[in-house]
Specification:
By secondary structure, this protein is an alpha/beta fold. Helices cover 51% and strands 12% of the residues. The chain has eleven helices and seven strands.
Length: 292
C-alpha cells in the first residue's frame, strides 16, 4: 500500500470509530502515522482508544463524542475540527433495522435513514471546501453488499446503502476535477458487533464472515484506484450477478435465504426458552422437595 499520508496529509476523520470496521480504519491509519479525529457516541471508549493510539504510535488524536442523528450534529462536528487540515474522511457509522417492513417502528427507520443517508451526505458536503482547498483529498463511503439489490427483511437498510453507492459513483467522477478521490466500500458479512446482533442464523447463509481488519485494508488499498470495491471473491460474485440475471431473481433468492435464517434463529430461541422454563421448574421442585 502506497503511503496515504503523502497523498492526503496528516489528519483523517472517521465516524463510527469505536468498533468494527470504523475502529480498524482508525487503527490502520494510526499505524501509518495519521493524526486522527475519532467520532462516535461512546466518549469513554473513544478516550481509551485515543490514549492507546497516542502511546503506541505517537500521533495526535481528537475525540468528538456525538450522536450524529441529533439536529445540527454534523455542523457542530465540523466546527470542532475546523482548525485541522483534514484530508481524508471516512463516514463509517451506520445502523440497520432488520425485520418485516410493517413491523418496524417508523421512528427507528427514520433514524436509520438519517444516519445512513443524510449524515454521510452532509459530512462530505460540509467538508467539501476544506477538501477542495487541499492538493489531494480522499473520501471512503462505507456501504454494504446489500446496496446492489433489494433485500427482503432489510428493505430500508438496503435502500439506504444503495443511495450511498449511487452517491459515491457520481462523486467519484464529479470530484475528480477537484483532486478528491472517492471510493465506495461495500462489505458483505463481516465479523462485527453489528453482525452479531442480527436475529438470524448466519450459518445458513452462503457467505463467509470477513474480518473487519481485512475489510478496512481493502478500502484503504483501493482508494484512488476506482469508484467502488467489494471485499471478497464470493461477495464480488453476488454483486455482479445482477448484471447477468433478471433483477428479481437475486431479490427472491436472498429473500428466501434470509427468511429461512430468521426462522431458524426464532426456533432456536424458542427451544432455549422452553429449556430454561423447564430447568427453572425442576429447580423449584427440587428446592421444595416436590411439594406444591
Amino acid at each position: 500500500m502506497k503511503s496515504l499520508i503523502k497523498r492526503y496529509g496528516n489528519w483523517a476523520l472517521i465516524t463510527g470509530a469505536s468498533s468494527g470496521i470504523g475502529f480498524e480504519f482508525a487503527k490502520n491509519l494510526a499505524q501509518q502515522g495519521f493524526n486522527l479525529v475519532l467520532v462516535a457516541r461512546r466518549s469513554e471508549l473513544l478516550n481509551t482508544q485515543a490514549l492507546e493510539f497516542k502511546n503506541l504510535y505517537g500521533i495526535d488524536v481528537r475525540v468528538v463524542a456525538v450522536d450524529l442523528t441529533e439536529p445540527n450534529a454534523v455542523k457542530a462536528l465540523y466546527d470542532d475540527v475546523a482548525d485541522l487540515d483534514i484530508g481524508l474522511i471516512i463516514p463509517s457509522a451506520g445502523v440497520d433495522e432488520m425485520g418485516a417492513f410493517f413491523t418496524r417502528d417508523y421512528a427507528a427507520l427514520e433514524r436509520m435513514i438519517k444516519l445512513n443517508v443524510s449524515v454521510p451526505t452532509e459530512l462530505v458536503h460540509i467538508f467539501g471546501s476544506k477538501l477542495s482547498s487541499r492538493k489531494k483529498s480522499g473520501v471512503i463511503l462505507v456501504s454494504s453488499l446489500f446496496d446492489y439489490q433489494g433485500i427482503p427483511l432489510f428493505s430500508t437498510y438496503a435502500a439506504t446503502k444503495a443511495y450511498i453507492l449511487m452517491l459515491g459513483e457520481a462523486l467519484n467522477v464529479e470530484l475528480r476535477k477537484k483532486d478528491i478521490d472517492v471510493l465506495v466500500l461495500s462489505p458483505g458479512l463481516t465479523d462485527t458487533p453489528f453482525a452479531h446482533g442480527l436475529e438470524m442464523n448466519l450459518s445458513l447463509l452462503p457467505m463467509f464472515a470477513q474480518k473487519p481488519k481485512s475489510v478496512a485494508m481493502t478500502g484503504l488499498r483501493n482508494l484512488g484506484r476506482g469508484a467502488t470495491v467489494v471485499p471478497g471473491l464470493l461477495n464480488k460474485l453476488y454483486a455482479w450477478e445482477n448484471r447477468f440475471l433478471p433483477r428479481s431473481w437475486p431479490v427472491k433468492l436472498f429473500g428466501a435465504l434470509i427468511g429461512n435464517a430468521v426462522k431458524s434463529f426464532s426456533k432456536k430461541k424458542k427451544r432455549e426458552l422452553t429449556h430454561e422454563i423447564s430447568s427453572n421448574k425442576s429447580q423449584v421442585a427440587n428446592n421444595t422437595g416436590g411439594k406444591s
